[in-house]
């Protein structure tokens, strides 16, 4: 089976920092979460896959198109939707104009068809009512949806979303998750996020990055399962725990190697993620 | 490490055929619409259209010479050009200023094509400018008093100047990513245009000043089109080549590569250089000879027609206007007495084209008896001025003698000149240099001016205030005495039945 995205040995160095270190992956249809701490290389990986920056070494292809050649890069970009980490906007444009502008840059040249497509994606992100409103008049959540609409226009096969839920309130984040879930139907979505809830709710696969390398690749359930039997509750912070924090009930939740007789808790995805980071350098599960 | 996710490959739904050319054109249309709706461009166009509406009906007093009308709006279009420069520059910088560049950089249309689209977005603005310029010219051309012919090159200069300024704005944005660069350059351009206006004309009437986008002339006189020798076509080529060069350089600066682009840039630069060099060439010997001939012996180039007993000689473009001159001559002679009523006159159009349009030179009065000079302009103040010249020749015999009239005959001249005009008192004001109807003043005419004393002014004012039918019989009856040299103003006043001035005649 041919994957939408296949990459092998991607490496990129910024000065002394190794932003990407021999990253290989294959992505298929659906939403794949990309978790990792700041500086893990998530955004760099996304920028490489979005052809914003070239890798120093390695190769990748999207739907069989190799960005190493100008023609291949063009073809890849025709199939790419990209939502940058902090998307810029043209505040004097209306939502419709901005998405239309992006559609033109994606070479959707038939005016009537393009306008239909712009209306479709604005409907899809629930902005039909404000499409004639200038972007400077829109809320942060609405602007983020405009950016998602711009990424979705042209119905790209590969969607790259870099921390799209940052700065959104819980209600907006929930709405955005619905949109991403819809976007994941029938296309390949790579979603970079700090929010483990996003991954738990949206993704059928999750990648964990640290130090420019992929440390885990599996399902969210598999990541959660890594913490099975390794989360416990105590009345005091356990010094042996890899991580621990006081909960709302006044007890401490600990993650690590529990002492004998510890009061074990049901693990969450975040527990598994924390343990994976703690064990960075250990063998990746899948 | 290798991460593997299974799933079916996803195909992108194509929304129609895609091509960079078509996308660049679509983007150009999008940007053009926004450019046309920016406030500075709207304001500049509003001012330009306002100028057309305000200026065109009265351009050259409603008797336009089309060889002047074709370049009448060029200077005003500099304003549009500057607005376009600033606004297109801001449009190109928009992605940088709004931090969308890193997003747009991964979209299909490359930066060089986007730059080309911005350059192409100038085309509708330039076309609109051309439509306005054509409308202004067409309006002049459709006036019943229009004469001469326009030059397509001159009509192109305005729109091409807007294109040039716009292309400069695009290039500037690709070279300097600062929003203040364009306003600064605009200020610099204004200063440069002033400096360029002061460039020496060089050999003849051309020179380095033609390197400026719009070349104004020091003289306001109208010359036959063939004598203008403004290298408008070469200048248009120069502007087009220059604008194209800047636009293509902008595409190169935007990342465009390839031999075709390089060759096109070189070709455009060659056009600019060719036009630039040829437009600065000295005025040709043929033109100089033609100018000399038209100035010194205009009869060699003129066509003469008869209206009544008089002959009217005009350069070919002005032949149709001889009827207007004949009407004035008829009116003046109808009020005269003696042989002056039927005196055959020769009305000859004269110009001084020896220096082209680099300066205004006053025409020397003719010493040929009964010959009256008429210029190339008509309408407005030119009518009473010509009327005064006709009356002065009828009274004094020739223009040279008329220029030195310093006695009561001046009263007769002015009454003859003005009494049958639609508004004699306004015409009196218009024909006098100081625009007054009291005191002494210079009286303008197509050649050397005449002068009126304060007393003569009082008498003329009094005469013009009375019905012409009351004065005309007295003029006819006393014609001989009224036109006798050294007749006093007091005596003339008495003969014509109005109060004599207190002061004696004293010419200034």
UniProtKB/TrEMBL annotation, chain A:
Keyword Ion transport: no
Ranges where the ABC transporter domain occurs: 5-236
GO molecular function: ATP binding
InterPro entries, per database record: AAA+_ATPase, ABC_transporter-like_ATP-bd, ABC_transporter-like_CS, P-loop_NTPase
Family, similarity comment: Belongs to the ABC transporter superfamily.
Matching PROSITE patterns: ABC_TRANSPORTER_1, ABC_TRANSPORTER_2
Listed name of the protein: ABC transporter ATP-binding protein
Presence of keyword Membrane: no
Pfam families xrefs: ABC_tran
CDD domains for the chain: ABC_drug_resistance_like (cd03264)
Keyword line: ATP-binding, Nucleotide-binding, Transport
From TrEMBL, chain B:
Membrane-spanning segments: 35-54, 74-95, 116-139, 155-173, 180-201, 232-252, 259-278
Top-level taxon: Bacteria
Record keywords, A-Z: Membrane, Transmembrane, Transmembrane helix
UniProt entry tagged with the keyword Cell inner membrane: no
Full protein name: ABC transporter permease
Higher taxonomy: Bacteria, Bacillati, Actinomycetota, Actinomycetes, Kitasatosporales
